[in-house]
């Protein structure tokens, strides 16, 4: 389901940027939701038009059951998601790191939505490289996890960040602008969390 974070917004409204925020947590609430709300508030303060996809409220099968060699019809919510990605000039991804990587629902969203012919295309059947089809768009990543930065990046290799930037967005033509980690969540104080929310709002105002 798509939410318009600015009432009455249309794709051509005003001079603001067209922003699609994708909330990649399957939880119905939590700190990722608060970060998303703070980012939206910052973006609205600059008259940007924001639409929101909450994956936890969408109806779709996250399993790509036959790979890309066998067809799998897109559900209505995924067709709408593709329309919103095409509409957007800037994409914001807010998600938690689970087991070092993406939540299964978010991974499944990309498996199903970023299909050949939509996000990329092979030049020839034998070609190992592909042509990006979503160029001209930028992205901000707001990510939560329970590790210290040095442990997640140096000891674990930051797979949930590297995959998103280098293996999903970049090859499809989407340039990551900001990558912000909010961590460690476990044991964080209310003062820390309020500071993180202010940072998310700031990022929204800079979109």
Compute the number of strand runs.
8
Order of helices and strands: EEHEHEHEEEHHEH
The shape is globular
What strand line-up does the widest sheet have?
Answer: 1-3-2-4-7-8
CATH superfamily: Flavodoxin domain
Number of helices: 6
Major sheet size, sense and barrel closure: 6 strands, mixed
Helix content: 25-40%
Mean of pLDDT: 91
Number of domains: 1
List keywords for this structure.
single chain; 207 residues; alpha/beta; Rossmann fold; NAD(P)H_dehydrogenase_qn; NAD(P)H dehydrogenase (quinone) activity; oxidoreductase
Q: What would your notes on this structure say?
A:
Residues 17-201 form the Flavodoxin-like fold domain. GO terms for molecular function: NAD(P)H dehydrogenase (quinone) activity. The chain has one domain: 3-Layer(aba) Sandwich (Rossmann fold), CATH 3.40.50.360. Mean pLDDT is 91; it is low at 5-12. By secondary structure, the chain is α/β, with parallel strands linked by helices. The protein has 6 helices and 8 strands, in the order E-E-H-E-H-E-H-E-E-E-H-H-E-H. Helix 1 links the parallel strand 2 (18-23) and strand 3.
């Amino acid at each position: 389901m798509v939410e318009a974070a600015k009432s009455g917004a249309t794709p051509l409204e005003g001079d603001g940027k067209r922003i699609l925020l994708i909330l990649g947590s399957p939880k119905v609430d939590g700190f990722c939701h608060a970060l998303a709300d703070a980012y939206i508030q910052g973006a609205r303060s600059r008259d940007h038009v924001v639409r929101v996809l909450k994956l936890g409220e969408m109806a779709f099968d996250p399993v790509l059951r036959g790979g890309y060699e066998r067809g799998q019809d897109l559900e209505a919510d995924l067709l709408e998601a593709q329309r919103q990605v095409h509409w957007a000039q800037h994409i914001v991804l807010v998600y938690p790191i689970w087991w070092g990587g993406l939540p299964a629902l978010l991974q499944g969203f990309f498996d199903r939505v970023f299909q050949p012919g939509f996000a990329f295309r092979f030049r020839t059947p034998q070609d190992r490289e592909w042509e990006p089809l979503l160029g001209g768009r930028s992205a901000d990543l707001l990510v939560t996890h329970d590790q210290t930065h040095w442990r997640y990046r140096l000891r674990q290799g930051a797979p949930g960040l590297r995959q998103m930037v280098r293996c999903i967005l970049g090859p499809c033509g989407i340039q990551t602008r900001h990558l912000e980690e909010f961590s460690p969540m476990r044991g964080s104080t209310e003062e820390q969390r309020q500071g993180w929310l202010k940072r998310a709002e700031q990022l929204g105002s800079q979109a």
